[in-house]
Amino acid sequence: MADVVAAALAASIARPGTAYASIEQAKEAAATLAATGACALCVLRFLRVPLGPAYQDDAAAAIREALGIAASDDPAPVCPACLGTLGPDVARRAAAEFKSQCYDTTAVTVAVELPKSVYVRHRAMQLLCTAAPAAPAIDVKDAVRHVVLQRLAAECDVVAAIDGEMRIEITFAHAETADDHQFLAKRPHGPGAGDTKSAIVAALAACSDDEFRARFPCPPPAPASAAVVSSMVLRRASVFVGGRYLKLERNISQTPFIVEGRRVTEHSVAEIIGEPLMALTRSDSYNLVGSGREDADVRMLGDGRPFYIECINPRTTQVSPAQIEAVEAALRERGSPVQVRRLQMVTAADTSIIKDGEENKSKRYCALVWIARPLTAEQLAEINAIGREGLLLQQKTPVRVLQRRAALTRPRRILALAVEPIAGRFYRAHIESEAGTYIKEFVHGDLGRTVPSLAGLAGATADILELDVENVALDFPPTPTPAPAAAPAAR
Ligand SMILES: [Zn+2]
Predict the structure, then answer these.
(1) Which UniProt keywords apply (predicted)?
(2) pLDDT for 171-210, tens place per residue?
(3) Domains along the sequence of the chain with CATH
(4) How far is the CA of 39 from the centre of ligand 1 (A)?
């Protein structure tokens, strides 16, 4: 390992426009840096050795040996430059966490948020190495990211990705040095307490070397405690499973229907479909997005309603079409009241079909209707003649949804209406409407808030006893192709 470090140092010195003219000069600077208590990786950073294999979280001894740092210059317990963020614990913890969760990805982006004091201390350390003003030292954030990725590559066989579908977000905190940047606040246009990193970096850039030296100790004092990882979040981009659902029984809501902590419906479409998909992809949670929704007491029949399930933070995305089909088959075989058709992996782009289709799809319904006074044959013929032409409704926001929707009057079109008698006062109404029409209100008139209505056409009180959705005219999901289930593989 010491050879690797020596080679890296030699290579960095050989580069044009480099910081140090010779190995001897670099070693001299290394001794100065080490005397501040800087850790081995920070010494490399301030020697301007580019990030590479020499930066390993367990290479401290080799680096010190290669740079000829005397054993008597043992580093302080906590590095005053990186505050311990380049220590081995962080990278090991990230690797252990990644392994324990068994993500099936090899492309990882590491994002790091450091204590802001690190940027102030970076400036102070740079000023120590006056022989090298031309080349900037290696950024500490880049170094932390590099060290973590090196460890992940070694232990988990992953590669760094610029904008990978998998992100490991590491946030550090260090209370002890939280006020390091406060001297900048006293400058005109300086950042205030708790300011952003970019404000601090900008204020540091505006501060001359002499002024900085006068206001902040160079080298910076070694802290008593190391920075702590305040959060380490592993997050994978969502995967999406699309299909069409059928709801064969009533009293099932689309998503869990909970009022004041109590469930109103026992089951939901989202849970019946989402739970097995969450298990299959080993996700944290899921979210169902349907192309519209029917009320809990309305069945969804025919070809079903297009929907997709977003699986959030999935560990497994290499899901085969056969595994997806098994979810569909399991619901069928156990006679679940919610069934799915054409279940398949879809892309994030495909999900926009559902969102965009919301406005312009039409739907077909079948309603069981009771009319207080039976219709004469003439009345029935007249209603059906009107129904064949279609009707333009003026529909005020229904009384039953006024609490959560704005009170507006919307024009909505009934594309077709056909009423057939069943017996006595019972009728079956076949209704095709454009998206966003309130069908129950079209039948009973909603106290005159929907005009015209079936009740109005019948000249009698009408009520809707049962409603089924028979078709949602939206082509989704995309027709299965040979290998749509292969999730976007590692880049
Ligand atoms: Zn350090």
Answers:
(1) Isomerase
(2) 999 999 988 888 887 776 666 555 788 888 888 888 888 8
(3) 2-180+216-235 (no CATH), 237-357 (3.30.70.2510), 362-471 (3.30.70.3190)
(4) 4
